[in-house]
Automatic annotation (TrEMBL):
Alphabetical list of InterPro entries matching this protein: BEACH_domain_protein (IPR051944), NBEA/BDCP_DUF4704 (IPR031570)
Skewed-composition ranges (Basic and acidic residues): 504-516
Protein name: Putative kinase a-anchor protein neurobeachin
Single GO molecular function: kinase activity
Keyword ATP-binding attributed: no
Key words, A-Z: Kinase, Signal, Transferase, WD repeat
Signal peptide: 1-23
Residue segments, region Disordered: 498-528
Domain (DUF4704): residue spans on this chain: 23-149
Highest taxon above the source species: Eukaryota
Keyword DNA-binding: no
Organism: Panstrongylus lignarius
Amino acid sequence: MIDSLGGCSLLLGLISMAQDVESLYAGVKALVCVVKTDRVAQAEMDRRRAYQTLAMLLRRKKNMLNSHILHLIFSLVGTVDSASHSSTIPNIMAFQDLLCDIEVWHEAPGDLQRSLFEHLYELVAESSEKRSNLNLVRQMRLVQRLLFILPAVNSNQTRGLMLNLLGALLLAQPDQHDLLAFGQFIVSTLPGSGGGVNNTTMVSERQVALQERPSRSSQTSFDHSDMEGATDSATFIILRNRCLQLLHSLLFTSRNNVNTNFCEEVAQVLGLDWPLLFLQSQLHSTTVVWGLRVLVVLCSVPALLNKFREGVCSGGWLQDTDLVLQNRMTVVLAGCQLGASIPKREYRIETSGPPGFHQLTWLLQHHVDVSQIYFLLMALMMGQPVKLMPPESKLDLLNAWSLLFGVAANQPMSTVMSKITLVPEAVTLMLTTVRVLLYSHQKIVTSDIECDRVHYAVNIIQFLFLVYHSNPHLMPIFMGQEVLTALANTLFPATSEPPTPADEVFHSGENPKDVLEGNNPNQEASADGHPAHKFVMDFIRFIIVDSLSLPVTAKATPPLDIVLECSGDMV
């Protein structure tokens, strides 16, 4: 009978003419009842793609939507009981046009979108048919839709649900387009990222006060109460950190092992230079820590470590940014100025770039006062992924050792020696940070900061000596040209003439006053009295004495010659 009166168009007309909540609910309920009971009406809705019309009408009447109407839509789609054993999605077209079009429910009264996200999460993560549902939802490009409205969501609980839903969609083997969109979204939260969600000018975030609670783990249960009353800058920082935390958790399996396949996917889609974007000098220390945590896990995969070392597999995060660059005369993306006249090939994926450890060295010298980076550098040096972090306190060697290898601090060192795969470039990087700690001078340095720097420098040297002394098989690495040169160079200011090309990282054209002030005539003398100076000298002495008992080869330069060459006229 409905078909003879105009079919579903009549019912859609009733919904269109609704002026209050009651009439809108009645119109939607009538449509749902007819479509659920009449196959002809359902075929008409499918043929005419009338679910899109219904979505448009609901969007126009967004202020009249309520939970009862949303429940009717669940019934129309056929997923009203998402917890049942047969929780597949029967009406795919209605699901795509009504539930996956999340802008319909965005900013609706009563935070309806939170109920929608709970429903979607049950379908893809908790139902018995979650695998088929997950594959279907991924085809709907739901990740891009979620990211589009994520910055505009004000409810902290809703943001947490959205991140949990994003985690479920990106878990295991994600669609490359989804992973690329997620990585580019995180980049867009950086200050000055043209065309991104954070349109603030390029300012330093380092002084922004956060109410963020330190997170030891990478669990995907998020507490967003720290966003309440936060400034715009703080909100972007916290949102960025939550997204990085989510990605970090996806790098591990449910058994806390590194998810090698996912790590390789991240490297292929986003590039190994992508985590370096979050180590820039103007960024907040919490972002730097999360960016470095992601990088450490990626580099725990030997194949990816080699690619990072060689500077290959980079620039993937710039894919599909042509429109952004063409629509703006100039754009600042992640702090890198790109002109519209640049040919496409220059900002497409690069097969090779600067060596990863060279870039990391230059970036981390701006964050020497962040205590957690030293624990992460220790993990990077020994190829250990880090899922848990120690509390934000002073660096402690015993706690760091037990957290890195999961053993008690009083157990013999031999129990963990088999797990160590020393990365020489990371050792050099740690020694470079020691050099910065010894000779950096800021205009305003409090006594607490100075004490922390002394503590960091001493503990790093002690840790390296502990590794050197605990395993004779690692001694050749410390006696090598690069590592021993970096160790000897910690005794001299970085602004002096570099004895090796490796030191050119300090002479990259930047104003050295920004990082290392070399105009202080008492600088070298002040280093002589630094507590770390004695440990460095003892370390070098042990290396030289140990090398004297080894046979001399023509291929390797004797450690004594390396040290004398580094000292030069300063000996």
